[in-house]
Amino acid sequence: MSDFGKLYAADSHDLLLQYLKEGSDTLATLADRKGSPRLAPHRYSKDAFYDLVDAYSDFPEESQDPKTQIHQMVSDLYVGIPRWRSPRQQYNVGTAVNAAASAAYSLALDESILNVNDGLAGNTLVAEQAVTNIIAGLAKLPHKAYGIFTFGGTATNMYGMKIGLKKAHPDSSRKGLRQNVKVFVTAEAHFSHLAAADWLGIGVDNIVKIKPTRDRSSDLEDLETKLRATLDEGDRIGVIIINGGTTYDHIIDDIPAVVKLRDKLVKEYTLDYVPHLHVDTVIGWGWLVFEGYNWKANPLHISVKTLAKLKHQYDRIKYVRLADSWGIDFHKGIGGCPVDCSMVIINKFEDAMLLSRKTNTGADIHQLADEYSFASPVDYTLETSRSSGAPLAALTALRTLGREGYRRHLANLVEQSGYAREKLSGQPYMQIANDKSNGFTIMLRLLPPEFPKVKLDDELKGLSDKLRKRSELITRYTKEFFTWDFQNRLNKGVGPEYSFSKCYFTGPNGVDLNALKFYPVSPLYSREHADELVDTMTKQQKLFNETVWQSS
Length: 552
Ligand SMILES: Cc1ncc(COP(=O)(O)O)c(C=O)c1O
What we know:
By secondary structure, this protein is an alpha/beta fold. The protein contains 18 helices and 11 strands. The chain has helices at 14-30, 46-56, 66-77, 99-111, 118-121, 125-138, 153-168, 172-175, 192-199, 220-232, 255-268, 304-317, 349-353, 357-361, 389-425, 456-461, 465-488, 527-547, and strands at 146-150, 181-186, 207-210, 236-243, 277-280, 325-329, 342-346, 430-432, 442-446, 499-506, 512-518.
């Protein structure tokens, strides 16, 4: 039996460091290849997974040796995890964690700091406000903004929706929600927007989806028609959430145009409220780091093509200052923080007041002894138990990398993936599905031997049966290729890893267009890795054609 006291150190972190060392050494033994996209590349088998569930479902009678437990658990349970720092890992929108940010988060977890009020958080409460100020500076917000750390990008959208509901139905905190409310989201929206409507009691049937245009940004004529229809029906507009950097293509909608449209309708319909505009910028916020960059002198020597893409994105995202609220995920893309590390920015402090528990519901938060605190963000938050780890990590990431570090990181991702994209699009049997994107992901469809050089525009042009069948065949081919590559290579952790999206979008021909998704996030991603990726894909496709594919 181990010594019970071994688990607690009164006033030092010696034990934490020892256990971290034990875990980290064990991790190192699992990483059998430098730059491998996963730890212990052989991922999971369902049976082995459920055997582990059984093995670990035992609550021992006596205490166990901590180091042995940690060693065992890391050996068994960290198997198959994606390594976001590896440039070969392009599976999804994770982030390569900045080690200093990770240390800041870990320490806050070890001290179990509650980001509630100064009584429970001490001076760590500074971090949330300082990050808000840094971000407000990047966005050049004209008013005093309010920033709240919360549980993921999902929650940032939920906050946007909640504030919108308070504007549309000011008495909803007390009386509940009356049903004549519609919320507007885009066809390209992340599924979290639907989740928010569900969890907030709005109901997904009250969601109105804004159609996309060919470049995947929102069709503002469609938005206007649908907003008018809602108002004509006598319904209220709960919120309008638009794209601020979509998951796949990083598309940013025309924010000023939506603000103008909303304000026009407020006047025309003499609304007694201004519908709330939230922008889902949890990924797209990253382009704000180019605030103040000298595009002409280009001190970072960014290539002409990449510079144009970055500027295009920055020139759209900079208008978040005109919206009402927006979100940031530091655990995605260039953020560099451990999951979760998200914040919602509310451009005007008065709007944050709409969230106040005390004012809106009369809740007495005496359990938190708030009368002895001079700062009590908890009054505005959904969660009570928020860790100070997230804001501390974000502040550490921002301060250790600095503007230049973030700019270099983003520019490199756009540069290298742009290079890979061009090389892939030059292959006769490959089609770039997100050819209009200025971001850093690649959505790739593979063309079967009978259909070389089909560009997406050609594929979408015709509505005839013959063309639809061609589209379906490309879809089937791409899926079968992925299934084969997954079983034979990706699952074994060999070479670069990407993933599969079964419905990148539904084409005008009614076919669900799938695509292979390459989502680089590592600052170590270089030309060499981009070349390796293109080589791997071309070789694998050739092998698939020779050994597996049968068109009929
Ligand atoms: C655009 C967008 N919004 C919201 C989310 C949800 O974020 P989270 O998974 O952190 O809740 C995602 C996740 O990928 C996203 O891409």
